[in-house]
Amino acid sequence: MALKPGSEGLHLDLGQALMAAGETVKARDILLKGLALNAANGKLLRELGQAQLQLGDRDGALKSFRRARKTLPDDHFTAHMVGALSQPGTTNDAYVADLFDKYAGHFEAHLTGKLQYRVPQALADLLRETGRPLGAALDIGCGTGLVGAALGASASAIDGIDLAPRMVEKTRETGFYRNLAVGEAARTLATEADFAGPYDTAVAADVFIYVGAIETLFAAIVARLAPEGLFAFSIETADRDDVEIRASGRFAHSAAYIERLAKTHDLIVLRRQDHDIRLEDNRPIKGALYILARDR
């Protein structure tokens, strides 16, 4: 592509299209050409950071996101990526809340339709396979209530927590939930009487992928489990490190990391099942479903 003044937008569009097609090297190169026209174009820098991270260049990605942050100071995604790359495992609650508030109106149709997301139902099926009563259930990151719908009458009561107010409004409309709260889950569990438990079942469907380092949240959930309680959740599977930030802005976790956390809290792995979490650019995102239980 020839360099022409004012064509940075074309470079951005082409770079995004190449990223979606899996042509990440070509995307990086075209974005760099666009930046040769305008080195301070924040959108180009943000897209370049994603390309660099997908190619394994963490240092380059961090530099690009930091430069983007200077011209996009209100961009939550850029702030999230700077934090996650400079302090591994760190998330940005404002980014997550904003993402899902904007997503609330078409969340279910897009996620379960185009992205073929089936995690809530798959976790509910695995929970039922244990043969244990699900009793009172806790839904962390309840979203629009997909877990509540999947558990249905199998749970005697369901309480839900989510960072995004508009998501919680949608969940309330379902009628599946006893108590609902807007806020950070670990803090809510520690301070709100309605969420004191104990819970026979806790579910975190597609939650840890937005948290990063999950030690604090994991401990807060386990603290509210009944003596024979079940803990069901999903992860995107990491290739190298215990916790990895991806170009999508989501985190992946290793099996060894999950197993260490389970052992620390005297939990056993009742079920672990490989599961494609969703489609992204028409390609499946590899993940896993877990059912943990207190070690009797």
Automatic annotation (TrEMBL):
SMART domains listed in its UniProt record: TPR
Gene3D superfamilies reported in the protein's UniProt record: Tetratricopeptide repeat domain, Vaccinia Virus protein VP39
TPR repeats: 42-75
Limits of the Methyltransferase type domain: 138-231
A Pfam family annotated for this UniProt entry: Methyltransf_12
Domain of life: Bacteria
InterPro entries tied to this protein: Methyltransf_12 (IPR013217), SAM-dependent_MTases_sf (IPR029063), TPR-like_helical_dom_sf (IPR011990), TPR_rpt (IPR019734)
Keywords tagged on the record: TPR repeat
GO molecular function terms attached to this record: polyprenyldihydroxybenzoate methyltransferase activity
Protein name per its UniProtKB record: Methyltransferase type 12 domain-containing protein
Lineage: Bacteria, Pseudomonadati, Pseudomonadota, Alphaproteobacteria, Hyphomicrobiales
